[in-house]
Write a structure and sequence with these properties.
Elements: E1 2-6, H1 10-22, E2 26-30, H2 41-46, E3 54-57, E4 66-69, H3 71-82, H4 90-120, H5 126-149, H6 160-169, H7 183-193, H8 196-206, H9 217-223
Parallel strand pairs: 1-2
Antiparallel strand pairs: 1-3, 3-4
Bound molecules: glutathione.
Glutathione binds next to helix 3.
Length: about 230
């Protein structure tokens, strides 16, 4: 059994998709980052960086419990544990790995900042919004270019790279992006949405509740490390 410390964000969704695809039994433990659950001493023992997702695999290496944080590390761990959804041939593996890195170091942080500035920044953040909007569009164009040449992001087969990236593209409308001029991305997006494991993951995410909708100004300040929570 795997314990997944989670809420509903794309970084968590990718692990729920993966656990469904790998058909590994798991149990979701809610960490409501809007309430500050990520800062409890118990949670910080699992991830000193205070972020979800985290897994505890009760059947880890040597049959012992093993904790993994960082969504990319979790995906690689699950792929290695099961021997599935990541090529083992070295050239194929590193072809896929570089696109996984694009998700982890580009798409996640840039889409996340764009969403932050769009939804939560005070007035007067025009420069930041314009910068992140352009970077988001640049990354969508890159995905389109890749998917014009390759059936899936990591190569010819569906891999953890697609599981990592797909949840971030679910919010394309909120990111002010349409797929009209991104036909290969649209084809890829629909193919993944139709996978039974992905449909199960989406249904599972919909059952997770959070105080996000009713978050107070203090909840938001703590989450975003601003106001009285800013570190000078
Ligand atoms: N690089 C991390 C990012 C994880 C992350 O940003 N998690 C957010 C939710 S999506 C979080 O837990 N934020 C709480 C905080 O920053 O205090 C990963 O890929 O796992």
């Amino acid at each position: 059994m795997i314990d997944l410390y989670a809420l509903t964000s794309p970084n968590v969704q990718k692990i729920i998709v993966a656990l469904e695809e790998f058909a590994l039994p798991y149990n979701i433990i809610s960490v409501d980052v809007w309430k500050g659950d990520q800062f409890t001493p118990e949670f910080l023992k699992l991830n000193p960086n205070g972020k979800i997702p985290v897994i505890v695999d009760h059947d880890g290496p040597g049959g012992k419990p093993f904790t993994v944080f960082e969504s990319g590390a979790i995906l690689l761990y699950l792929a290695e544990k099961t021997g599935r959804f990541m090529p083992t041939d070295m050239a194929r593996k590193y072809e896929a790995m570089q696109w996984l890195m694009i998700q982890l170091t580009g798409i996640g942080p840039i889409f996340g900042q764009w969403t932050h500035f769009k939804l939560f920044a005070p007035p007067g953040s025009d420069y930041s919004m314009a910068r992140f909007q352009t970077q988001v569009r640049r990354l969508y164009d890159l995905l389109e270019q890749r998917l014009a040449q390759s059936a899936y992001l990591g190569g010819p087969d569906y891999t953890i790279v697609d599981m990592a990236t797909w949840p971030w593209t679910r919010n394309h409308a909120a990111q002010d992006v349409t797929f009209d001029k991104l036909p290969n991305l649209a084809r890829w997006f629909d193919a993944i949405a139709q996978r039974p494991a992905v449909a199960r993951a989406v249904a599972k995410v919909a059952t997770i509740t959070s105080v996000r909708e009713t978050a107070t100004d203090d909840n938001k300040d703590r989450y975003f490390a601003r106001g009285s929570y800013a570190r000078p």
